[in-house]
Design a protein that fits this description.
The protein is mainly β and about 300 residues long. It has helices spanning about 35-40, 75-80, 90-95, 175-180, 185, 235-240; strands at about 10-15, 20-25, 45-50, 60-70, 80-85, 105-110, 115, 120-125, 135, 140-145, 160-170, 170, 190-200, 210-215, 220-225, 250-255, 275-280, 285-295.
Length: about 300
Amino acid sequence: MSPIKTQWTRLIRFVAAETAQVHIGEPVDPKLDVGLAFHQKKPIKAYEIAGSALDPAAQVTKNILTVKQLLAPLSREEVGLVRCLGLNYADHAAEANLAKPTYPVLFYKPVNALIGPEVPVTIPKHVQPVEKHLPDYEVELTVVIGKPAKNVPEAEALDYVIAYTAGNDISFRYHQMAVSQWNFSKGYDNTTPIGPCLVAAHAFPDPQKVPLKTVVNGKTVQDGTTADQIFSVRQTIAFLSQGTTLLPGSIIMTGTPKGVGFVKKPPVYLKDTDDMSVWVGGGIGTLVNPVVEERGDQKAKL
């Protein structure tokens, strides 16, 4: 099995100033941190890409467009399914006083949870009472599967990756700790940022040597490396593909390093108006999202 080779190195999805339409493209400046540039309202130019982000044959054209709105690099429809690993860093397990898991701890998120750069992370109304107000940040290297993967040998696992991006697995600790299954507490609408760009797998460094950080209100609260992962990206893909087809576009959020808020003394939880960003190396860059609390007397729709 051959690795996936795309025509692009970095891919962004955006609304273009020239057309007011959604496009995908390759940033003209190969070293630009597009997430930080967009946050700082600096101009971003991109060569339009003809085709789909998930099609390795998609061509980078010479047509240059201006980014008006930077979007999540994949749409919810393209992602389809979000798999997430919990407790996958040795330093995080140690800070939480939890034993290292024997197998990857898996949970799922609905695609309604996904948002892009600068979109507010919304703290739902039902978790806002004082005793339940425990929203937490989690920077994560995020893997994008590029071709159907089933029963994949560990040695070939990275051949199924089309790209990498950053994710922020916002966690609501009250409801997470109340039950053994985390899907509900990790899957609220508009709570999981991904982006700001995709970095093609063929251009990405060793996924086990990637630095990653979280900054809240100007203070670095997480500063780690994927070298501390308990289950490597290769091991994770091989394990999750056992008897299960990982479809193109599906993403895997690979866990978070030490520094999460709920284990700090005193604990640090996200609150309304917080300025939050995560950064992942390897050319991925900065993913900035404000925090807002849901307002109004909204009732759940069952």
